[in-house]
Amino acid sequence: MANIAMTGILEKMTGKDKDYRYMATSDLLNELNKDNFKADADLEIKLSNIIIQQLDDVAGDVSGLAVKCLAPLVKKVSEPRVVEMTNKLCEKLLKEKDQHRDIASIAMKAIVAEVSTQSLAQSILVSILPQLIKGITAPGMSTEIKCECLDILCDVLHKFGNLMATDHELLLGALLSQLSSNQASVRKKTVSCIASLASSLSDDLLAKATVEVVQNLRNKGMKSEMTRTNIQMIGALSRAVGYRFGPHLADTVPVLINYCTSASENDEELREYSLQALESFLLRCPRDISSYCDEILHLNLEYLSYDPNFTDNMEEDTDDETLEEEEDDESANEYTDDEDVSWKVRRAAAKCLAALIVSRPEMLTKLYEEACPKLIERFKEREENVKMDVFSTFTELLQQTGNVTKGQIDINEQSPRWLLKQEVPKIVRSINRQLREKSIKTKVGAFSVLKELVVVLPDCLADQIGSLIPGIEKALSDKSSTSNLKIEALIFTRLVLASHSPSVFHPYIQALSSPVLSAVAERYYKVTAEALRVCGELVRVVRPNVEGIGFDFKPYVQPIYKAIMSRLTNQDQDQEVKECAISCMGLLVSTFGDNLNAELPVCLPVLVDRMGNEITRLTAVKAFAVIASSPLRIDLSCVLDQVIAELTAFLRKANRPLRQATLGTLNSLIVAYGDKIGPSAYEVIIVELATLISDSDLHMTALALELCCTLMADRSSPVVGLAVRNKVLPQALTLIKSSLLQGQALLALQNFFASLVYSANTSFDALLDSLLSSAKPSPQSGGVAKQALYSIAQCVAVLCLAAGDEKCSSTVQMLTEILKHDSSTNSAKQHLALLCLGEIGRRKDLSSHAHIENIVIESFQSPFEEIKSAASYALGNIAVGNLFKYLPFILDQIDNQQKKQYLLLHSLKEVIVRQSVDKAEFQDSSVEKILNLLFNHCESEEEGVRNVVAECLGKIALIEPAKLVPALKVRTTSPAAFTRATVVIAVKYSVVERPEKIDGILYPEISSFLMLIKDHDRHVRRAAVLALSTFAHNKPNLIKGLLPELLPLLYDQTVIKKELIRTVDLGPFKHIVDDGLELRKAAFECVDTLLDSCLDQVNPSSFIVPYLKSGLDDHYDVKMPCHLILSKLADKCPSAVLAVLDSLVDHLQKTINFKPKQDAVKQEVDRNEDMIRSALRTIASLHRISGGDCSLKFKNLTNEISKTPALWDKYCSIRNE
Questions:
Q1: What domain range includes position 1196?
Q2: Is the pLDDT of residue 515 over 90?
């Protein structure tokens, strides 16, 4: 049936009437697009002939439809037909008249785009390549034919370049010859053709092409337009092949720099192309370009202000602003020349400088000294497009400063932040000039620079605020301002208000508030929303504290209130505006509530109303939290009951953020207004709370328990205590058995039990009993998790302390009885008793209970490991309660009891760690004793003992740094390797995140510890690597100066060392042991940490190859951190990764295709799965780098993944994470 219909269509397609032909072609297109369309051999021939014929139809719309028919046709007919069609089209291309040639070229491109199978591509290439080459190189071909052929060839090469390796040389020869064509259009298309070809060329052919182009450039007698083409060619090659161009930089860079400086004055394009090529080198060959960076920097700075036709006679930095304004206008009018293209050179220099900034974090200090002043000076650029590029280059400099100096506190005189701080007055002066310009675009650019400046250096504008206010005012109130400019100005204002101290702004509030408040009334919602956010900051600034001392805020209360209220009551507006108005009103009421008594009954009901609306309820709930926690105790009587009822209902909602916010708000309301809320409301809340307590959402649980404690704090009502006991207590006792319980939720649970004892109607004994019995193993679930026992013990301790001394001693009595009598039978009971004693002892001195220490130490004899460790924990914690009595006892025991040493050291560790956290002091005599004892155990054969000793030493060092740092340093040269390793690990334990007095004492001595990374013993080297890692994480500033020396040594630890691999003969088979594995893993993890904190010191290019590359092919434990490092580098230093992407692909490919052996155990299979996911996660990160397409190997890898269903599913799920 279909074929009869086709015959009718085909007849009409050749009819005389063009409308018939059009309709018939349209019908054919519909038929071809149907999925079930099939054609026999006969019909195929007819179809392909008639469509090719239709291409030449005199009616343009018919031939246009015929081209559209080609795409589905290529997929539906056999290979020979497609080849035949392409041949016919090639003939048309080379012989026909102009209009037919155009349509043939379009048709040809349509076919190439649709070819999807390799075999078809090969057949087509065999037939069309010779014809295309003929069209390009044969003498007598017109420019138009050459251009069309080059266009098509470019598409073909881009899609199938790697299928024609045999023809590469021939193609390259043909194309290179066209670079010297007299026609500019031919040269231009040839450049993009060679670039498409280059990405699939072998290294030899790439070298051949580069050499020829460089040779052309060295030929001094060449016409300047040819030189320009060759320079463009070099840039295009580098963009196409990325890091593979690296080996040729030595030949090309000097030539380009030479052209830049020696080109004739009117040859601006030559300079522009040279700078663009250098920019491409900086981004794509970071390793090989490093030796030329200084030269390129100076070149950029010279051309940033290159303007030969314009003399700039303005005095730099004059403070006489009025004079300057006039001069500015004059200078703008006095010189205009449409022929002047020197701005292109300045723009190229700015972009090249930006590439240098982005790709060279290690040059930041130098860039501040040399490039920063120049960039600031160039803000006055007269060509607007270039000015925007100067702004964006400067913004890159600021962002790079932010990246490199993240988390650094102290600012020394060499650090980029310090250097930036010195430039702030200059930046502001220069930007202020730009804010007085007429152009909107300029002002938007200027604000975006200021915005970035405040983000990187939050409090840097304190002295400059006054001079910036007029610019902000003008931007917000000028008639010509666009909404885009207003938004930028408002965002900047908000950031400045948020990051500086309020008093700085007080002189300028008058000037600031009126334009901001008028912006609240703007029509465009984004401006309004931003203005409302600024109002929120303004409210804080106007009255930073309740007293409001030093500034009279009253005149501003009413205007701000009216502006916000008009937005709050308005219903028909954008959600963002509604939310901002609600938050802003919350802030306003909580800050100025005492001056808004008349207005509260009007605005509070509106906020309650917004709680009823699904879209705005979350914001309204948060607004009430702000109002409730205001120190002004605002009168909420008109809406309180309604608010409580709404909030209680929200606790049932599925929306998690809403429930969280509701719990916080209820807590604040009950703290502030508990006496005005009836017990009946409390009961309803408690019933809802009980359902929120579970270990599946610990954050929510913590909030719910905190609210419970707040409810019970009001002791007058017995009803509340009863409701809590019936509803919440059972949930709490279930929760305490959870092995996940920790942190905030555990603290909240302890407070909950303490509050229960305080609210008089719950008996202590019943609570204690239920707590202890929750530790009993139940027949269904088996024993209780170890973590749960610790939780129970902490709750018991808090409970006892809350109940008072008498109850506390009776409990201790009972616990010691358990230890005395149940020695062998009930291990769980004993375990819990020991933990409880420890927790109580830590919080309260137990010396009134005679011999308690001996009773605990008896348990060291227990056959069960967990009881031994619980006993050592208990002993240490009891000692914390009374150091004077129990510390000498522990030290004495360590000396005399060889067998119990490890456990006793753990007790000592508990004591020391607690003291270092609580900043307590030891007596001098005990410190001496402890040190002698610890240093004696440094060489212990057992790693466990050495680790405990190291932790003890590190934590004592926090308490007594002046004694310990020298003592540790002396032992770095000890002959015993174990001692050297122990003291380095001790230093690691003494480096904590918060600032400590040890930092200053340790700083000069760090190198004597970390340089043990050169030690001949692997244990010591690993200890040094771990210590370096901790420094990099917690105190990067202390080690910055040592990194140039340490990094090569650290990289060396990532290499597989043959001498550390040994074979163990196990009789039936041999087992290979790699003693260096732990060290390599630690070294890579250390690099990973350094990338976060010391990016400016790590030169990624020298690390990726060879070190990271070998790590990607190492053992499972090493590959994992390497994958993480590669993902991080792809994000932070994409150019360095792109430069060597090809060489990394093989290892990733090998990892994702690895199959475990048939008889592999489940653990091996799972590890391999994790490994594949980790590699895919890295590939996803690499995929996000822009410009990753230039690596063919990587493209093929992603194609392979997309064709393997198992991998593709995993890959997709990872990308959606």
A1: 1103-1216
A2: yes
